[in-house]
Structures are given as structure tokens and as C-alpha cells.
């Protein structure tokens, strides 16, 4: 398989030190994308590779379907669980052993002496991923790639990586229209604008150290909701809605039910900002998000995500396939981001 290189991928990526690949679903082509990036970038720079979760095995451990393996070149540095080393056919030098534990052993940093296939299983927490990336950079890595796992898009956050690639494809659904709609919603959320006021950002970050919610008023006052469940917060926030309310800052997830509550109470405010950590924290459909816009509610993020492009895979491991050109064309028409077909033919 190859990727149609309509955009100059190397030129697009070489300016970033830390890149994440996140998927809409398993088997949408992330490993194919990763292998392509290794070919494009890993032959020109010292590349570091790790994963949130596991990748690189020849059979998917969840769906039991075959998948491509990860092939790396000499001098590539990987961070993987110790037990995964027995599934690698490279000659490697262990550079560092961390105290980050996984079900497959502690994470180790390994430099490839020879080319070959590797099995990657990284830590599950963003804080550990950031530490891993720093360690690999201390050993000379120039560009790092983090391969995200199913339902874990947090590696895209700007305080973890500074550029992101989104993979979508037929594995998400039998319905091509549904795949396009879901991808459109995800792109909308990943592209949410950042908070421009640096001082306000610092105040909210300070609130988030102890509180899950903060109510911000026009006069500059902030009310913290400490040790509050989402249900309790919804009731309390409803009582705070008024003309003097400026914004609601939310540390955790923003649910569809919470957004629907704001829509139902829209008569209690003229305009409102929702301030969240990043666009991976919102769980709502596109119709609800459009209602939020219509109610003059703006969603802003503390950590914007730099989405570079989308890759699309028209094939599903379950045996069905979308019309390749039509799928790519409809994605491009609905989503104003560069789209690359992971199964494009050589030109």
C-alpha cells in the first residue's frame, strides 16, 4: 500500500518535533500512515516512535484481523514495553529503562542497529508520553511520532505533540455518509479555537488544579465548583446562568447532555463561552454543536490542536469497500482539510 503524496508530506512534517497519528476507529489505516511517515521522515532524520497502547502486531488483538506491521530503519529509536522486544526482529541497543509499567513490562528506550519489524506498546498517560518523548530527544531524536490507540485522542493535544494527523476510513461504518459526518464532527472539534487571553488561561489552569468546573463572571470574579460530579455541576451551573455570566470552564469531558442543558436554558443568557482543555474532550453530535453555535455559545480550548491533514482508507478489514474516488472527493467537499488516500495508486 502507498499514500498518494498530493501534499509534500516531508516538507509539511519536518518543521515539527512531535507528531501524533489519531484514528476515528481501529483499522482505518493508522499503521499504513505510520509506515509511510517512517519512509518519508525516518530516512532523513533520527526518528523516535512510541504508542499510546499497542501497535505493530500482525494480528489485531481486538478484532483478530490481520494488519500491517511497523518497519523501521537503523538509528530509529523506539519506546516500547519490554515484553514486546521478543516480537521485534531488529538488532537493538537498550538505551534506557523507565519505571513506567504496563501489562507487558516497563517501557524501555531502544535504538535500532538494524532495519526490521517492531512491536510498539507505550504508556497510557499523556504525562508519561511527554516524559518518553523528552527522553528520546535526549538520545538524539529529531522527530517523534506518537501512534494513538482506539478512543485515545489525547496524544493530539498541543502540550503533548505539536502536529496531528487524523485517520478515517470504512472500518468506522458500513455507511459512507455516516463516516463522513463523524469525521466532519471530529475535525470541527479538533480545530476549535484557542483562548486568546493568556492571563485568563493562567487563572483557569490554576482553578483546574483543584476544581473540575469554574464559573467566570463579567466583572472578573471566578467561582470554583470543587469536588462536584457532572450531574451536580449541571444543576448548579443552571442556577448560575444569567446576563452577568461570561464563561464556564470545564476540566473534564463535555457531554451531549450538558450541551443540551445549555441549549434548553438559552433564554437565561445573551452569549456564553465554554472553555475546555482541548477538542478531544467534547462528546456530542454535529447537530447539537450547530445548536450551540446558534445559541451564541462559543467553545474555546486552552490547548489548540494543529491538524495537518486527514488520511482516508476506503477498505474495511471486514471485507467491504467504499468507491475510492467518491469517498475521498466527498471528504474533501465536506471537510476543508487536505485529504490523502492511504490506498492511492502509484503515479
Explain this structure to me?
The radius of gyration is 21 Å and the shape is globular. The protein is built from 9 helices and 20 strands. Helix 4 packs parallel to helix 9. The chain is of the alpha/beta class and 347 residues long. The longest helix has 15 residues. Strand 19, helix 9 and strand 20 form a beta-alpha-beta unit. The strands form 5 sheets. Strands 6-7-5-2-10-1-11-19-20 form a 9-stranded mixed beta sheet, with helices on both faces. A 5-stranded mixed beta sheet has the order 13-12-14-16-18, with helices on both faces. Strands 3-9 form a two-stranded antiparallel sheet. The N terminus is likely disordered. The protein is 28% helix and 26% strand.
Strand order of the largest sheet: 6-7-5-2-10-1-11-19-20
Structural class designation: alpha/beta
What shape does the CA trace take? globular
Main β-sheet: number of strands, strand sense, barrel status?
A: 9 strands, mixed
Number of strands: 20
Q: What is the element string, with H for helices and E for strands? A: HEHEEEEEEEEHEEHHEEHEEHEEHEEHE
The separation of the N and C termini measures: 13 Å
> pLDDT under 50 segments (min length 5)?
1-6
* Overall pLDDT confidence: 86
Q: What is the percentage of strand-forming residues?
A: 25-35%
Rg value: 21 Å
Percent of residues in helices: 25-40%
Helical element count? Answer: 9
Characteristic key phrases:
347 residues, alpha/beta, nine-stranded mixed beta sheet, five-stranded mixed beta sheet, 9 helices, disordered N terminus
Draw up the topology in text.
Elements: H1 9-13, E1 18-23, H2 30-41, E2 47-51, E3 54-55, E4 70-72, E5 77-81, E6 92-97, E7 107-112, E8 116-118, E9 120-121, H3 126-138, E10 143-147, E11 163-169, H4 176-190, H5 198-208, E12 213-217, E13 222-225, H6 230-240, E14 245-250, E15 254-255, H7 256-264, E16 272-276, E17 282-283, H8 286-294, E18 297-301, E19 307-313, H9 324-334, E20 339-341
Parallel strand pairs: 1-10, 1-11, 2-5, 2-10, 11-19, 14-16, 15-17, 16-18, 19-20
Antiparallel strand pairs: 3-9, 4-8, 5-7, 6-7, 12-13, 12-14
Helix pairs in contact: 4-9, 7-8
Amino acid at each position: 500500500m502507498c499514500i498518494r503524496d498530493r501534499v509534500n508530506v516531508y516538507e509539511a512534517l519536518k518543521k515539527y518535533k512531535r507528531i501524533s497519528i489519531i484514528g476515528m476507529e481501529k483499522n482505518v489505516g493508522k499503521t499504513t500512515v505510520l509506515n509511510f511517515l517512517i519512509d518519508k521522515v525516518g530516512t532523513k532524520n533520527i526518528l523516535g516512535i512510541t504508542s499510546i497502547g499497542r501497535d505493530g502486531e500482525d494480528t489485531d488483538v481486538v478484532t483478530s484481523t490481520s494488519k500491517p506491521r511497523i518497519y523501521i530503519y537503523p538509528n530509529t529509536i523506539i519506546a516500547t514495553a519490554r515484553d514486546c522486544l521478543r516480537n521485534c526482529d531488529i538488532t537493538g541497543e537498550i538505551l534506557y529503562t523507565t519505571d513506567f509499567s504496563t501489562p507487558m513490562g516497563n517501557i524501555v528506550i531502544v535504538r535500532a542497529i538494524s532495519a526490521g519489524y517492531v512491536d510498539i506498546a507505550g504508556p497510557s498517560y499523556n504525562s508519561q508520553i511527554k516524559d518518553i518523548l523528552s527522553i528520546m530527544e535526549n538520545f538524539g531524536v529529531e522527530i517523534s511520532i506518537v501512534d494513538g490507540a482506539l478512543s485515545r485522542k489525547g496524544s493530539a493535544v498541543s502540550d503533548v505533540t505539536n502536529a496531528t494527523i487524523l485517520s478515517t476510513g470504512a472500518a468506522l461504518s458500513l455507511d459512507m455518509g455516516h463516516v463522513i459526518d463523524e469525521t466532519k464532527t471530529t475535525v470541527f472539534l479538533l480545530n476549535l479555537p484557542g483562548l486568546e487571553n493568556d492571563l485568563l488561561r493562567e487563572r483557569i489552569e490554576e482553578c483546574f488544579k483543584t476544581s473540575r468546573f469554574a464559573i467566570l463572571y463579567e466583572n472578573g470574579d471566578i467561582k470554583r465548583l470543587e469536588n462536584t460530579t457532572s450531574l451536580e455541576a449541571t444543576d448548579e451551573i443552571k442556577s448560575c446562568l444569567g446576563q452577568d455570566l461570561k464563561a464556564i470552564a470545564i476540566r473534564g469531558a463535555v457531554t451531549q447532555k450538558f450541551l443540551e442543558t445549555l441549549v434548553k436554558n438559552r433564554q437565561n443568557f445573551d452569549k456564553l463561552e465554554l472553555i475546555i482543555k482541548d477538542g478531544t474532550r467534547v462528546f456530542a453530535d454535529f447537530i447539537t454543536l450547530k445548536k450551540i453555535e446558534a445559541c451564541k455559545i462559543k467553545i474555546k480550548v486552552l490547548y489548540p490542536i494543529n491538524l495537518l491533514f486527514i488520511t482516508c482508507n476506503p477498505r474495511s478489514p471486514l471485507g467491504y469497500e467504499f468507491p475510492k474516488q467518491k469517498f475521498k472527493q466527498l471528504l474533501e467537499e465536506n471537510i476543508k482539510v487536505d485529504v490523502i488516500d492511504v490506498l492511492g495508486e502509484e503515479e
